[in-house]
Write a structure and sequence with these properties.
The complex is a heterodimer of chains A (656) and B (259). By secondary structure, chain A is α+β, with helices and mostly antiparallel strands. Chain A is 36% helix and 14% strand. Chain B has two domains: 117 residues, Beta-grasp domain (Ubiquitin-like (UB roll), Roll), CATH 3.10.20; 129 residues, Orthogonal Bundle (Fumarate Reductase Iron-sulfur Protein, Chain B, domain 2), CATH 1.10.1060.10. Chain B contains eight helices and seven strands. Classes of the chains: A alpha+beta (656), B alpha+beta (259). At the A-B interface, helix 3, helix 5, helix 6, helix 11 and helix 12 of A face helix 1, strand 7, helix 2 and helix 3 of B. The complex binds flavin-adenine dinucleotide (FAD) and FE2/S2 (inorganic) cluster.
């Protein structure tokens, strides 16, 4: 019906071209930048770049592109760019500075990240990330980010999981807040100088593809409900991850997949959707009213010891259980990394001991994180200095005092390694559509190491996209475009119809109710452990739920006002399709790797068993059917990007 | 609590909530009764429960802003019985739990009120004035790529800590709502202190304070007459000493600035 085109699908059934440079890995990024066409400085202001999202990735990209002279428009669903979900990151950001002189290097950060990701990430990207990491710290300090310091005035570091060096920079337990404020302030400086036009409370609901190239977006102004189009020369999506598909997660409540999913439906491939991260240290669920889960920073595992009773159903209070009757299971199983094993390993082990009936707390679905020994060793003031605000947060939520009795923790959904497929330039399979930050799939393979999402978001925004955007802007002929192009009218009409459809179903259940049910299905069958039978079952359940959604949804109010129920309904509709793709992906990947644990594929001691011969690739899914809101079932075809390991040899991950 | 008094277990509440359909509507208080509320619920989860019920009855749910529900994004914030963010110290609305209230309580829930924060709907505000104050000068001009090695400029630990104390501001606007003059000086002072305590913030120190103060006035915020209600309401306990610092920097800039 529409003259709105989707991107050309020449890639169909061909292998995807990652555009990774060749040669010595140390030189690849330099060489690539040299070979990428530069945009003539005088021409930059003629190019209009649309940046969707103002988290670390979007804010840093927008500020930097405006500094370089591009005309930039920025969009976010929040009331202010500073409220993006990145603000909530706690623990820290990695860099290979080697300030502590403990043996770190760019190579080691590269190696740890490839291994931590269980050999499912691209070497070229990860090496580049490690190279850029040091510049990020320099940039942030120059902006006034108040990182923690030693008495001598120099920067302080701490350790995070999956590494044996101290390379994490932090600002108390509020690192994300401080990094985001740095990027936000840089962004607002450009807004003040009129180089950036800021559009807050705008929800992008479609990408406009004109003549095969992304040339604009369609948004809903959330205050008035007005549908608006914006035309430009490139579209950057930095709209975050999709962890909220599980309903309960540590993500902020507004985090959603809609922008990415709309782009996917216009032709952007979605890669490794089943690679999701379950974080081991979260406050356990307390009741059915629960609306979200709260993370306790991984940094706590530096000093906190994880244990459960050795006996099942041991109801004694923790203090009454003598040391000899406790099982410090991570220290026991992984003597060299101990409590600092990567997240997937820590989470899986916590689930295992709870499944054995050795969990603690009234629900028996938690394990202890105990600071008793650290407090005895260093004194409470020292521990308070490091973790005071986290302890306070814990106490506020649970009404229990972690200085006196151990914290109780359980794994929770936290981060999504999957996302829109991008090449080395961060360009998706729609020419001119770039994807940054958690929204892309690029650097973390099947498991992300702690403190590396902030690093990746800022690397993408401050350093990668400013260099690679030229490949598109200077490398392609871009005829002038405006919102008068018929593709805009068609996309606007699609958006309008969808909004009206959601409002007109007039059924009985609210969107949140559907969302909770969906979350439970995905958590039970496509969460910490998966198997073929469960996944097949889940596929049917999700399909049935989506069917019911489109017949039994109830959204009150109108489209022409601030309508939070309508906003939620649109996001849940997209989650209902994305969940299906996650399950399809998890079903097809008949191996275990990182956070994707297929129970059929494990080693004798219960670790993930990869199948490199068959699955050493990124799975990029192409959307091939109109989807449920147009009456059809969604369907996908698979494209494989083979992963080559030239510098790190594939081996069974070991943290013992 | 006697058994015949409790049809469902949990707390009973009477809620008087500000309802306003849009910026042009005059708005009014409406009363709702809720029971079965668990003391372990957060305050916003209690509002979720109310909204589910309203939706089921075909009535429009109460609009309120929220996102992180961890006290860090600054989205949430309402007046509860006349207190910005409610009764607990150093606690944002989203971090409040129902165990802070008595069973049977009647609560009055209103938006933050200030000329600089127009109401968009129910409890949802437009706080973009804060963005414009930051755009006027709340930054260090450091273009990407120009930075020197991070350890080339040591910062005394005590300065870094004080700077961080101020930098923790979440921009929720409780300080403005709590102030009888609707002043934004704690918000502005916190940014002045965060950047002005660091060596990197020195070159623009005078320019920054003048520009931010000018914008603060233009947005219609009042000025401080030492009530100190702001510090008491601040979920991050940002100190009023930052206002003193703002005043000092402002005076100094007025005397010394050359632009
Ligand atoms: C509790 C918590 C703690 C964490 N701690 C750490 C840590 O210590 N270290 C670390 O490295 N990582 C951490 N992470 C992960 C990290 O914070 C995130 O991966 C990262 O911040 C994501 O940044 P982003 O810029 O990609 O997206 P986000 O910060 O999620 O920003 C998304 C942006 O997109 C906008 N948006 C979304 N949809 C639309 C739409 N349809 N239209 C318009 N705009 C839209 C939003 O308004 C927002 O501005 C943590 C995550 C959580 C949940
Ligand atoms: S919802 Fe983020 S501070 Fe309350």
């Amino acid at each position: 019906m529409s003259s709105q085109s989707t991107a050309p699908t020449a890639a169909q059934n061909a292998t995807l071209d990652s555009k990774c440079p060749q040669g010595p890995i140390q030189d690849r990024w330099d060489r690539h930048r040299f070979q990428t066409k530069l945009v003539n400085p005088a021409n930059k202001r003629r190019f209009h770049v649309l940046v969707v999202g103002t988290g670390l990735a979007g804010a840093s990209a927008a500020a930097t592109l405006a500094e370089l002279g591009y005309r930039v428009s920025v969009f976010c669903i929040h009331e202010s760019p500073r409220r993006a979900h990145s603000i909530a990151a706690q623990g820290g950001i990695n860099a290979a500075k080697n300030y502590p002189n403990d043996g770190d290097s760019i190579w080691r950060l590269f190696y740890d990240t490839i291994k931590g990701g269980d050999y499912r990430a691209r070497e070229s990207n990860v090496y580049r990330l490690a190279q850029i990491s040091n510049h990020i710290i320099d940039q942030c300090v120059a902006q006034g980010v108040p990182f923690a310091r030693e008495y001598g005035g120099l920067l302080s570091n701490r350790s995070f999981g999956g590494a044996q060096v101290s390379r994490t920079f932090y600002a108390r337990g509020q690192t994300g807040q401080q990094l985001l404020l740095g990027a936000y302030q840089a962004l607002m400086r450009q807004v003040g100088e009129k180089k950036i036009q800021l559009y807050s409370r705008r929800e992008m609901l479609d990408v406009v593809v004109a003549d095969g190239v992304a040339r604009g977006i369609v948004c809903r102004e959330l205050g008035s409900g007005k549908i608006e189009s914006f035309a430009g020369d490139a579209v950057l999506l930095a709209t975050g991850g999709y962890g909220n598909v599980f309903y309960l997660s540590t993500n902020a409540k507004l985090s959603n997949a809609t922008a990415a999913w709309r782009a996917h439906r216009r032709g952007a491939f979605f890669a490794n959707p089943c690679f999701t991260q379950i974080h081991p240290t979260c406050i356990p669920v307390s009741g059915s009213h629960q609306s979200k889960l709260t993370l306790m920073s991984e940094s706590l595992r530096n000093d906190g010891r994880v244990w459960v009773p050795q006996k099942r159903d041991d109801d004694r209070p923790p203090a009454a259980i003598p040391a000899a009757e406790r099982d410090y299971f991570l220290e026991r199983k992984y003597p060299s990394f101990g409590n600092l094993v990567p997240r997937d390993v820590a989470s899986r082990n916590a689930k295992q001991v709870c499944d054995e009936g050795r969990g603690v707390g009234s629900s028996k679905m938690s394990v202890y994180l105990d600071f008793g020994d650290a407090i005895a060793r260093d004194g409470a003031p020292k521990i308070a200095e490091k973790y005071g605000n986290l302890f306070q947060m814990y106490q506020r939520i649970t009404a229990e005092d972690p200085y006196h009795s151990p914290m109780r923790i359980y794994p929770a959904v936290h981060y999504t390694m999957g996302g829109l497929w991008v090449d080395y330039n961060l360009e998706s399979t729609i020419p001119g559509l770039f994807v940054l930050g958690e929204a892309n799939f690029s650097d973390h393979g099947a498991n992300r190491l702690g403190a590396s999402a902030l690093m990746q978001g800022l690397a993408d925004g401050y350093f990668v996209i400013p260099a690679t955007l030229g490949s598109h802007l200077a490398g392609r002929k871009l005829p002038p475009v405006s919102t008068a192009h018929p593709a805009f009218a068609a996309a606007e009409q699609d958006v309008q119809q969808r909004v009206e459809r959601l409002l007109s179903i007039n059924g009985k259940r609210g969107a949140d109710d559907f969302h909770r049910e969906l979350g439970l299905i995905v958590w039970n069958y496509c969460g910490m452990a998966r198997n073929a039978k469960g996944l097949d079952l889940a596929l049917g359940k999700v399909g049935a739920l989506r069917e019911e959604f489109w017949h039994n949804l109830r959204v009150l109010g109108s489209a022409q006002e601030l309508n939070q129920s309508l906003e939620r309904a649109g996001r849940v509709a997209d989650f209902l399709e994305l969940a299906e793709l996650m399950i399809v992906d998890a079903r097809h990947r008949e191996e275990s790797c990182g956070g994707h644990f297929r129970e059929e594929y494990q080693t004798e001691d219960g670790e993930a068993r990869r199948n490199d011969a068959q699955f050493a690739y990124a799975a990029a899914w192409q959307h091939t059917a109109p989807g449920a809101d147009k009456g059809g079932q969604p369907s996908w075809s698979l494209h494989k990007e083979p992963l080559n390991f030239e510098f790190v040899s594939l081996s069974q991950r070991s943290y013992q | 609590m006697s058994a015949d008094h409790a049809p469902s277990s949990g707390m009973r509440l009477t809620l008087n909530i500000w309802r306003q359909s849009g910026p042009a509507d005059a708005g009014r208080m409406e009363t709702y009764h809720l029971d079965g509320i668990s003391p372990d619920m957060s305050f916003l989860e209690m509002l979720d429960v109310l909204n589910v019920r309203l939706e089921r009855e075909g009535r429009e749910p109460v609009a309120f802003d929220h996102d992180c529900r961890e006290g860090i994004c600054g989205s949430c914030g309402v007046m509860i019985d006349g207190n910005a963010h409610g009764p607990e110290a150093e606690t944002a609305t989203c971090q409040l739990h129902m165990r802070s209230f008595a069973d049977g309580a009647a609560l009055t829930i209103e938006p933050f009120r200030a000329k600089g924060f127009p109401v968009l709907k129910d409890l949802v505000l437009d706080r973009s004035a804060f963005d414009r104050i930051i755009a006027a000068g709340g930054f260090i001009s450091a273009n990407t790529g120009c930075a020197v090695d991070a350890n080339s400029t040591p910062v005394a630990k005590s300065d870094a800590e004080l700077s961080m104390d101020a930098a923790q501001c979440i921009g929720c606007g409780a300080c403005v709502a709590a102030c009888p003059n609707a002043a934004a000086m704690l918000f502005v002072g916190a940014k002045i202190a965060h950047l002005g305590l660091l060596p990197q913030g020195q070159p623009e120190r005078s320019k920054r304070v003048l520009a931010m103060a000018r914008q603060m006035e233009a947005e219609g915020f009042g000025s401080c007459s030492n009530y100190y209600e702001c510090e008491a309401a601040c979920p991050k306990a940002i100190s009023v000493e930052n206002i003193a610092r703002l005043n000092r920097d402002y005076l100094r800039a007025g005397l010394t600035t050359r632009d």
